[in-house]
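During the no-cost extension, the postdoctoral fellow (Dr. R.K.) reprocessed legacy sequence entries with the updated structure-token encoder. One reprocessed record is reproduced below for audit purposes.
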Amino acid sequence: MITAPELEIAVLVLGMAILIVESFATRIDRRFLAFAAIAGLAAVLVASFFVAPGGPPDQATGFWSFYTADRLAIFFKQFALLTTILVLIMMIDYAPVVRDSFPGSSLQAGLGEFFAVPIFTCAGLMYMASAIDFIFIFVSLELVTISFYVLVSFTRRNPATLEAGVKYLVLSALSTAFFVYGITWLFGATGETNLQRITVALTNPSTEHGAALFGMVLVLVALGFKLAAVPFQIWVPDVYQGAPTPVTAYLSVASKAAGFVVLLRVMRPFLMLPQMQRLIVLVALLTLIYGNLAALPQTNLKRLLAYSSIAHAGYLLIGVACFDGAAVTFYLAAYLLMTLLSFAVLVIVAQQTGDQISDFDGLGMRSPFLAFAMLIGMVSLAGVPFTAGFLGKFFIFYAAIAQRQIALVVVGVITVGCGFYYYLKVVRAMYWQPAAKINKIPTSALSRIAISALIVATIWLGVYPQPILDALKR
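Re-encoded structure tokens follow.
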């Protein structure tokens, strides 16, 4: 059997090998590095199915006091690997834009690093999935965040990209400060940084619960930035619009998933404190209302998907408030499929026309395949039955009804109606608006295969979700 830590080691070795080849093999086509990275990550993904799940041993010391390989951790490792593979496929399509952002340089300028940095981001995401100690959570979180600093501002001669990079850098640094300060308060109150030992310490009547609660609030503020939850979402629209489109997709899916797996683990010791649940409910309500209402007037598709990302964070927070990890995990799996499907189409279309919703006018005539893919992505994000997005929302609302969180259910159902309006604006543009020019949009074979797989998976998970549910139960 393969051990879980070997997966992260393999990913790190792959990333360093790609960087070394990029540095010394100056004559090769840099897109070869992307194909090598995709093949390497696919091999690690296959290997992850041969890892035996299991938590840390009792009285674990050393490395195993920081790291776990339970079912949730392995699932999110596979989630990170699959997301990174799909983002690298998008990056191959996006390569001409990266080349154009380095005028006067060789045609290969910057591409090697553009394909290598996501591998290190993936390693950080995989470590976050297994982290059960605040110190290890912080280190893996910083590995992910620093990698995103580079990716967000990669096309640095574009003023919008530079603005996105600076905003992301400043606000991420601020959230890191909140996180470290929160860990300090928790350590001062309990004398521990390991989540399991903090749980034991909180059952001790002599523990200062007020100080521990304050520390946890600071940690939630930091995670709120990562999750794009209100009122910590201010960076999201500008960063999503300014960053390279594949990086926006990566931020939207992988960063959010990592934040939620950390939140699920961190919340567990604090379930006994009723104040924490009320705080999560309030944040979920604000996030649902703001994300959906702010998306209504948007005319730029990347900004629309940014506000949509905030809205989906609200639905996920309903699951967290109801302490239903299975519902949150299923929703994240559905969100992975439908969001990456939408961004995969956006990457191809935006290079031909642009990323305004009006640029999708007549896409059904110009490229029926891409239009159908975007249609499936939009209706799944909206929550139409027989798609993964519908079942994701169903499980979230079922958890809220079981916990008698009526306010969350009512607000959630109303905001789903808002979502139908702004998602179907894109469908209307593709099929009801005439195109200025009927120009065919070329699609590479690899992108066509990836988009087809995402379409099938989105529908399959909406019709037959049992394999995912069985995996989560185990």
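DSSP finds 19 helices and no strands in the chain. The two ends are 18 Å apart (CA to CA). The remaining legacy entries will be reprocessed before the final report is submitted.
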